[in-house]
Amino acid sequence: MPSPPTEDAFRAASTANVATMSRDELAEHLVHLRIVRSWSDAAEITANRRARELAAAGAAGSAEAAHVRAGQRSEREARAVTDRADVCAQMPGFESALAAGSVSAGHLDAIARATAKLDDTGRARLAASADNYLDQATRSNVDAFERAMRKEAAAINAATAGDTAAEELVSQRRRSNVKRWIDKVTGMHHTLLELDPLRDAEIWTAIDAQLATDRAADGNANTAWS
Q1: In Å, what is the CA distance from 175 to each residue of 167, 199, 208?
Q2: Three-class secondary structure of residue 220 per DSSP
Q3: Beta-carbon neighbour count of residue 131 at 10 Å?
Q4: Residues 6+ away with beta carbon under 8 Å from 93
Q5: Sign of CA dihedral 23, 25, 31, 32
Q6: Lowest-confidence range among 96-100, 156-160, 181-185, 187-191?
Q7: How far apart are CA 150 and CA 168, in angstroms?
Q8: Number of C-beta neighbours around residue 198 at 10 A
Q9: pLDDT (tens digit, 9 = 90+) per residue, 65-76?
Q10: Lowest-pLDDT range, 91-100, 160-169, 178-187?
Q11: For position 163, what pLDDT does the model report?
Q12: Are 146 and 137 in contact (CB under 8 A)?
């Protein structure tokens, strides 16, 4: 059942006479509808959570199927409900705010779309700042929040990509090695270098510089440089 202030909004919305409303009264009516709709969306997330538990226990089909069949949702809408439930699992404050009408399902959809563009590290960073995003969502309309979350996802991707590249370079430096052996049949000497990108660049810079010097030296015109 709805709870205050949702209960008050539900009562006002269900008894409203829209045909006689002034501009300000209509605006207030739309606020009431928004609060009721947000409460309903939050209740659907709770239902989605239970549907997934039943599916995991083998007692029902998928949660999306339940929304499509019993909830008369499209498959796309059903997936959106599941995505919202995932957002609330990572950021519980959004579920409470949705139930109270402080944010809308559109705000959760914006987070879900941003999350889809991130890897595990990025999603953890996003979840760590949940309180900041919730405060921003309560003060922003859905379109503005959507733009902000797109920028945030791009910034997180750029930051984590930098971290990943630095970590990979350290790992590559650890794996760098030199192997030398002599082929017993041909007598040829072999040297195998496995280098990280920076060391490889340093070696070839030195080799190219030496080759340029040798090519310019007198008497080397007929040298087989290959």
Answers
A1: 13, 12, 25
A2: coil
A3: 10
A4: 130, 131, 134
A5: negative
A6: 156-160
A7: 27
A8: 12
A9: 999 999 999 999
A10: 160-169
A11: 67
A12: no
Mean pLDDT within 132-142: 95
pTM for this entry? 0.70
DSSP string, 83-143: HHHHHHHH-HHHHHHHHHTSS-HHHHHHHHHHHHTS-HHHHHHHHHTHHHHHHHHHHS-HH
> Ramachandran region of residue 187, left (φ > 0), alpha (ψ -120 to 50) or beta?
left
Amino acid present at 62:
S
The whole-number pLDDT of residue 101 equals 93
- Burial pattern 33-62, b for ≥16 Cβ within 10 A else e, equals bebbbbbbbbebbebbeebbeebeeeeeee
Cα–Cα distance for residue pair 49/13, rounded to 1 Å: 28
CA distances 197 to 165, 170, 177, 200, Å, are 11, 11, 13, 5
Residue 87: which residues within 8 A CB-CB, separation 6 or more? Answer: 94, 108, 111, 112, 115
Residue 170 has pLDDT above 90, yes or no: no
Longest dimension (CA), the chain: 103
Residue in the structure block whose two tokens are 């207030």 = 28
**SS3 state at 216:** helix
The residue written with tokens 């997934």 in the block is 52
